């Protein structure tokens, strides 16, 4: 798989013909809140069935970028997203796709496990499908089982699907949230520091899971943990906060290159823990 | 690579994805039709609901607008004479009276509501349940009865009408509203903030005063100003206790009778003089303007505090 990717990097013109055309394209994306620019001029591509990680110190706009990909900023008063954000070539902000449909194609896992507290495990997993109008029991069951298997949770919960989700441990709850996102069969999964509130063992399981999930979804993850980015991601975007507190993309490329042979000296300093 | 992809067996996940997308798209179409219907229904309802408001405002401005003048808001009222039927003077003492009574009421209601609201949030005792029930009952009492209360307990023992009695009645009217606003604002402060304060070894009272109340301030201020705007327009609680429905003095001793805009509107609208009768609209307009200013101020302040809180 990496061969195809390198070809694209070496020869950007090959993008069009290639069968691994990017699923998500960001072109000069700007995000501002009430006029204050939080992210400036960010452009990069997300390759299908790969993990793209966003790294950088606090305030560099990682989460802001992630949340612009499924239009979560729509809920924030005063938030404004400019530039082109293309999903399979269709601009997701300029009326190309209904927001609800977009969010069923681009799932999200949050920093803290947030299963719906009053619902059972089963109801949590199929909640997205039900919200989208799926009623057929066989389809719900099938999707739930598949998602729970993919989230490595099936073995431990298949016998107690009717139990409240709040009875699960933190790591299990996060995997339940991943299953819940997967059940809608998204093409892309956004993960906002998915392991930052978990213990090391749960973190390791989630990281293993991400690698396994690559054949099922494309992932974009935000992480503070550089080892995590190095371990799981294929591509990596490094962001920094400019003097006016706006986040800027310093460098984007294959994770290997970002971590071992970055073009920008600031990237090198950061991945070696010299600041941030 | 494309050929390899095509020769693979059908992918169950891909199939399911197609199925789910189809259902989602159908649901979305149904929902956007529903959404359009609802938007239309609601906007129609909004227009219908706004018609009375617009009519009231329009009528007041149309009929009262001509009364507005520097003299009207700065001079004392006059009783028209046969020779000078239109010499009704101004309403300055009623404007100041309204402001004084409202300010005194706020001075009583705000501290009480702060303490009550804080107590209702922080404590879960039998006493807090009694307080909560009392506040709720108080908010349901017809406002004229609050006037009766002030009449029996202040006016009768004192043997004369007073602005103070009026402000007590208004304070009773405002207290449940502000208490509710305080309670809601305090509940909106995240528990983690309170816990952070307690974890530094601070007493609960200190955390409440130094951390929780400041964080809740925007909500508290907005609630207070809205309650004040509401109270300023109240006629019934004042009716029995403030004494002067028509006064011609600059006497602003709070323990004497005082004039107030709502009552002046009331007395002018029943006046035998056509000029006073007309001026009732002018008084009403001044009252509406005062309340409007207060409302806008509260919106402005809350917007500013919210913006500051975000920084």
Structural summary, described in words:
The complex is a heterodimer of chains A (276) and B (311). Chain A has 276 residues and is of the alpha/beta class. Chain A is built from 11 helices and 10 strands. Chain A has a 10-stranded mixed β-sheet, sandwiched between helices. Chain A is globular. The model of chain A is unreliable at 1-18 (pLDDT under 50). By secondary structure, chain B is mainly α. Chain B is 77% helix and 0% strand. Chain B has 12 helices and no strands. Chain B has helices spanning 2-7, 12-64, 70-74, 92-122, 126-140, 143-158, 163-187, 191-199, 204-232, 236-239, 261-269, 274-310. In chain B, helix 2 (12-64) packs antiparallel against helix 12, helix 4 packs antiparallel against helix 9 (204-232) and helix 8 runs antiparallel to helix 9. Chain B starts with a helix and ends with a helix. The A-B interface holds A 4, 19-20, 34, 98, 100-101, 104-105, 129, 132-134, 139, 142-143, 146, 184-185, 187, 216 and B 1-2, 5, 12-13, 16-17, 19-21, 23-28, 30-32, 307.
Q: Could you outline the blueprint of secondary structure elements for this entry?
A:
The complex is a heterodimer of chains A (276) and B (311).
Chain A: H1 2-10, E1 24-33, E2 36-46, E3 51-55, H2 62-69, E4 79-87, E5 90-91, H3 99-105, E6 106-109, H4 121-131, H5 137-150, H6 154-157, H7 170-183, E7 188-192, H8 200-213, E8 218-222, H9 226-232, E9 235-241, E10 247-254, H10 255-260, H11 265-271
Parallel strand pairs in A: 2-10, 3-8, 3-9, 6-7, 7-8
Antiparallel strand pairs in A: 1-2, 1-4, 4-5, 9-10
Helix pairs in contact in A: 4-5, 4-7, 5-7, 7-8
Chain B: H1 2-7, H2 12-64, H3 70-74, H4 92-122, H5 126-140, H6 143-158, H7 163-187, H8 191-199, H9 204-232, H10 236-239, H11 261-269, H12 274-310
Summarize this entry quickly.
The complex is a heterodimer of chains A (276) and B (311). Chain A contains eleven helices and ten strands.
């Amino acid at each position: 798989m990496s061969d195809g990717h390198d070809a694209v990097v070496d020869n950007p013109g090959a993008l069009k013909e290639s069968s691994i055309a990017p699923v998500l394209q960001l072109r000069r994306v700007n995000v501002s809140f009430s006029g204050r620019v939080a992210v400036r001029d960010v452009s990069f591509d997300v390759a299908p069935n790969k993990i793209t990680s966003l790294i950088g110190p606090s305030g560099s706009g990682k989460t802001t970028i992630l949340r612009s990909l499924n239009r979560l900023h729509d809920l924030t008063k005063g938030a404004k997203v400019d530039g082109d954000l293309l999903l399979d070539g269709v601009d997701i902000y300029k009326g190309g796709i209904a927001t609800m449909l977009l969010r069923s194609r681009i799932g999200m896992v949050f920093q803290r496990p947030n299963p719906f507290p009053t619902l059972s495990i089963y109801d949590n997993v199929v909640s997205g499908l039900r919200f989208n109008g799926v009623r057929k029991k066989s389809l719900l069951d099938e999707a739930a089982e598949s998602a729970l298997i993919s989230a490595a949770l099936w073995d431990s919960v298949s016998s107690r699907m009717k139990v409240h989700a709040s009875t699960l441990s933190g790591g299990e709850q996060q995997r339940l949230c991943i299953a819940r996102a997967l059940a809608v069969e998204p093409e892309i999964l956004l993960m906002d520091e998915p392991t930052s509130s978990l213990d090391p063992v749960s973190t390791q399981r989630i990281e293993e899971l991400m690698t396994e999930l690559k054949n099922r979804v494309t992932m974009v993850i935000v992480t503070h943990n550089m080892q995590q980015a190095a371990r799981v991601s294929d591509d990596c975007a490094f962001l920094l906060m400019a003097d006016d507190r706006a986040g800027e993309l310093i460098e984007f490329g294959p994770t290997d290159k970002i971590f071992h042979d970055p073009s920008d000296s600031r990237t090198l300093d950061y991945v070696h823990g010299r600041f941030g | 690579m494309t050929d390899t992809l095509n020769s693979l067996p059908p992918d169950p996940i891909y199939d399911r994805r197609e199925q789910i997308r189809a259902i989602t798209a159908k649901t979305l179409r149904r929902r956007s039709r529903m959404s359009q219907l609802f938007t239309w229904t609601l906007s129609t309802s909004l227009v219908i609901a706004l018609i009375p408001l617009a009519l009231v405002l329009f009528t007041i401005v149309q009929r009262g607008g001509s009364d507005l003048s520097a003299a009207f808001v700065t001079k004392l009222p006059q009783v028209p004479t046969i020779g000078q039927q239109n010499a009704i003077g101004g309403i300055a003492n009623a404007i100041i009276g309204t402001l004084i009574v409202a300010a005194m009421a706020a001075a009583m209601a705000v501290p009480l509501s702060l303490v009550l609201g804080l107590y209702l949030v922080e404590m879960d005792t039998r006493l807090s349940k009694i307080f909560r029930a009392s506040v709720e009952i108080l908010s349901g009492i017809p406002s004229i009865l609050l006037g009766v209360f002030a009449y029996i307990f202040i006016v009768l023992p004192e043997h004369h009408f007073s602005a103070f009695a009026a402000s007590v009645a208004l304070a009773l009217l405002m207290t449940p509203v502000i208490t509710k606003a305080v309670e809601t604002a305090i509940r909106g402060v995240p528990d983690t903030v309170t816990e952070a304060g307690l974890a530094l070894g601070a007493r609960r009272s200190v955390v409440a005063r130094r951390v929780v109340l400041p964080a809740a301030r925007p909500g508290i201020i907005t609630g207070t100003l809205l309650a004040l705007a509401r109270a300023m327009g109240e006629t019934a609680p004042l009716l029995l206790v403030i004494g002067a429905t028509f006064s011609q003095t600059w006497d602003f001793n709070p323990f004497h009778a005082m004039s107030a805009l709502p009552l002046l509107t009331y007395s002018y609208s029943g006046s035998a003089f056509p000029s006073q009768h007309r001026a009732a609209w002018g008084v009403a307009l001044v009252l509406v303007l005062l309340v409007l200013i207060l409302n806008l101020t509260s919106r402005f302040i809350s917007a500013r505090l919210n913006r500051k809180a975000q920084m």
